[in-house]
Amino acid sequence: MRVVVLRLGHRQERDKRITTHVGLVARAFGAEEMLLTGIDRHIEESLIDVANRWGGDFRLRSGVNWKDEMVLWKKTGGNVVHLTMYGSNLMDVLGPIRNSEKIMIVVGAEKVPPEVFDVADWNVAIGNQPHSEVAALAVFLDRLFQGKELAQEFLGSLRILPSARGKHVMEHH
Amino acid sequence: MRVVVLRLGHRQERDKRITTHVGLVARAFGAEEMLLTGIDRHIEESLIDVANRWGGDFRLRSGVNWKDEMVLWKKTGGNVVHLTMYGSNLMDVLGPIRNSEKIMIVVGAEKVPPEVFDVADWNVAIGNQPHSEVAALAVFLDRLFQGKELAQEFLGSLRILPSARGKHVMEHH
To answer: Which residues of A touch B162 (CB under 8 A)?
Structure first.
């Protein structure tokens, strides 16, 4: 299954660190690309730096038009999942979502245009309480991939040896 | 099982929104309290406002001394889980962690004092890739509570009716 993440409504400065966390989670939890409606060099640099050192094929594409991307994705056989606290319970829709071969996961900032709710195949809530788009994305991907995403190999120049105490990092070039 | 979250090393301004997200996730995913080493009125107001409108008993305690809190927690029969990308694989330690009756989950910002690794009963990685303390906390709690935390009732004045399209919010006073 192919998974990309579309980050909507990024406001420079205010959302800088949250959007960076969304991108890092997308990469670490098995998405292949993040699309960003704005352009933010700081975020691009952070994510490219992580991908360079820690490995994997994660990509970032900035300055996209969200509507064009969603429509094109659906036209080419993909499905769109919009994560929102107003949506259906995750467990009620995860079965059909797992049958998709191409999923675009849409995560918004404060205000999401109503059209997003209509274009999405599924509006999905990770609980119906206010919390965080970073958390919603992580839990959605963890449930979607049933935990297997955390065992991915990234083959970067930096690699952590999991350990009960302290920090054990292997570095090779 | 009682769960509290200790947020270390909050730097005002830089971490404002990330720490708010940590607090919102703690509440939404079943923790009863967040302890914060700094003092930040903005974060306090955001979290109290959410708890007032959306319900539940979540509390915030600011300006704590992290070492005193960890030591006291352990002295009174609690266990400490430190979430870190350098730690043991989640699945290798989740069994014993589930046997605890009182868990303090420690989440750091950039630099965590080495002593935290020593005082913690478990240093736990949600994957060994860099990502986000917000995501790590959410996935840890989701796995710990096996998804049941998302079905909690908060009994606030605002309540969402999950739905496939649009926003359906019930309000009562």
So the answer is: 86-89, 92, 125, 128
Q: Are strands A169-171 and B2-7 parallel, antiparallel or unpaired?
A: unpaired
CA of A165: how far to CAs of A161, A168, B86, B110, B114, in Å? 11, 9, 8, 18, 9
Select the residue from A19, A131, A152 to test the B interface by mutation, using most B Cβ atoms within 10 A: A131
Which ranges of A29-155 would DSSP assign to H, the alpha helix? 41-54, 66-75, 90-98, 114-119, 133-144
Q: What is the DSSP letter of A173?
A: -
What band does A91 get if pLDDT is binned at 50, 70 and 90?
very high
Tell me the pLDDT tens digit for each residue of A118-168. Answer: 999 999 999 999 999 999 999 999 999 999 999 999 999 999 999 999 999
A 102-131 → B contacts, CB under 8 A: 114, 117-118, 122-123, 125-131
- pLDDT score, position B14: 77
Query: What is the nearest CA distance from A146 to chain B, expressed in angstroms?
Result: 11
Which of B166, B161, B160, B167 is closest to B53 using CA atoms?
B160
Q: Which domains does chain A have, with CATH numbers?
A: 2-171 (3.40.1280.10)
Q: Is-above-0.80 flag for pTM?
A: yes
CB contact under 8 A, A21 and B131: yes
> Alpha-carbon distance A170 to A1, whole Å?
30
A62 in reach of chain B (CB within 8 A): no
* B125: nearest CA partner in chain A: A162
Report residue B167 as tokens.
């926003």
